[in-house]
Amino acid sequence: MPGLVTLGETMAVLGSPRPGPLRHAPHLELSIGGAESNVAIGVRRLGHPAAWIGRVGADEFGALVLERLRAEQVEVSGALVDPDAPTGLLVKEQRTPDVTRVQYYRTGSAGSRLCPADVDAAAAVITGAGVLHITGITPLLSPSAAGAVARAVELAVAAQVPVSLDVNHRAALGGAELLRERLAPLLPHLSHLFGGEEELLLLADATDEPSAVARLGGPELVVKRGARGASVYPADGGPELHRAAVPVRALDPVGAGDAFVAGYLTALLDGAPVAERLRLACLTGAFAVTVPNDWSGQPTRDELGLLDAEAGTTLR
Ligand code: ADP
Ligand code: KDG
């Protein structure tokens, strides 16, 4: 059964469990995170095969990344252990209950040394997939990582595998100009483009949404609007669809976008129409914000009804 394949950097994550300046945190919790592998985990939990391609260092953090992904049954046959660079690290500070600060330690990391030859070595995983998912993070990591993404897209397009991209602009990795420069060659090959309102404007170099949609025109465009839900502008120019967010008690917004994309692409792999893709995406996005971790709150299929339960429900 063809599933999802994705590539990018997955890092070790150190997060403070309580609000406050990091220097006063008595201890940090160790986990992993990476926008692309978060999506792979979400799709896998919902029942489709998912594979991740990337590099980790020959260190404990790298072992943790691979161990966690394997535990989530994400296929890592296309993952490489790089003996010459460390696994990247992300430190997540809950500065106030409502503001999260993220610090990257990923310059020169193993993940940023991903290159086209790594992708060629995993070509069969890409050409046999039902969808290739990429993000705007990987092309900003390094020129070789940008080349790896371009190569993956080339292989997918040649094999008629649809390509989905989530802009995921991380300002710490580069400004709007670099984002546009590195993503522009990919845009004509996309079947689905996801982004937040602001980052889509940045990418299109536009000032309002209709002009952004016109400039980015081509792929199915999915706009993520946080607690206000999401919209889809179909590729065939058909009427746009809007859906409100599922009301939940939000604890941590980080990772919502990845869970949303996981839901959307799962429904795509199910062969579901656009309205159902959007419904499932809003549901899985809502699950993610209920848990203070980038990916662990993502649901399995049989958990999808849980958000309908009343507060205080105990299931026995
Ligand atoms: P990103 O993480 O990429 O910035 P968003 O924050 O827009 O993405 O979240 C993606 C989707 O997750 C939203 O479109 C929405 O459907 C859902 N979502 C996000 N925040 C909430 C929230 N507070 N309550 C319910 N659903 C949410
Ligand atoms: O989308 C959530 C991500 O921000 C996180 O898991 C780590 O890939 C990541 C990044 O670059 O911030």
Automatic annotation (TrEMBL):
Domain (Carbohydrate kinase PfkB) ranges: 3-300
UniProt keywords, alphabetically: ATP-binding, Kinase, Nucleotide-binding, Transferase
CDD domains in alphabetical order: KdgK
Top-level division of the source organism's lineage: Bacteria
Family in the record: Belongs to the carbohydrate kinase PfkB family.
Protein name: Sugar kinase
InterPro entries associated with the record: Carboh/pur_kinase_PfkB_CS, PfkB_Carbo_kinase, PfkB_dom, Ribokinase-like
Annotated source species: Streptacidiphilus jeojiensis
One Gene Ontology term of the molecular function aspect: kinase activity
